Amino acid sequence: MIVSGINSVTTPLAGWGRYPIEPCHLFRPERRRELAAILASGAQRDYISRGLGRSYGDAALNRESGVISHLRLNRFLAFDPETGVLECEAGVSFAEILQYFLPRGFFLPVTPGTRFVTVGGAIAADVHGKNHHRDGTVANFIKDFKLLTPGGEILVCSPASHSEIFWATFGGMGLTGVIVSARLALRRVESAYVFVDYQKTRNFEEAIGIMGESDRQYQYSVAWIDCLATGASLGRAILMRGNHAPAAQLPKRLRDPLAAPSHREWNLPINLPGLALNSLTVGAFNALFYAAHRNTTQQLVDFEKFFFLLDAIHNWNRLYGKRGFVQYQFALPPESGRDGLAAILERLARSRRSSFLGVLKCFGDANPGLLSFPIRGYTLALDLPADRGLKPFLQELDQLALRYGGRVYLAKDATLSAETFAAMYPQLERFRALKRQLDPKGVLASSLARRVKLVES
Amino acid sequence: MPSVLILGATSAIARAIAAEFARHRSELILAARDAEELTALAADLNLRYGVKTQAQCLDVLDPAAVETSLPACLAAAGETLTGVVLCVGTMGDEEAARANQAEAERILNTNFTGCVLALNVVANHFEKRKRGFICALSSVAGDRGRQSNYLYGSAKAGLSAYLQGLRNRLFRSGVRVITIKPGFVDTSMTFGRPGLFLLASPEAIARGVYKAINSGKDVVYLPWFWRWIMLVIRLVPEGIFKRLRL
Ligand SMILES: Cc1cc2nc3c(=O)[nH]c(=O)nc-3n(C[C@H](O)[C@H](O)[C@H](O)COP(=O)(O)OP(=O)(O)OC[C@H]3O[C@@H](n4cnc5c(N)ncnc54)[C@H](O)[C@@H]3O)c2cc1C
Ligand SMILES: NC(=O)c1ccc[n+]([C@@H]2O[C@H](COP(=O)([O-])OP(=O)(O)OC[C@H]3O[C@@H](n4cnc5c(N)ncnc54)[C@H](OP(=O)(O)O)[C@@H]3O)[C@@H](O)[C@H]2O)c1
Question: How many domains does one find in chain B?
Answer without folding.
Answer: 1
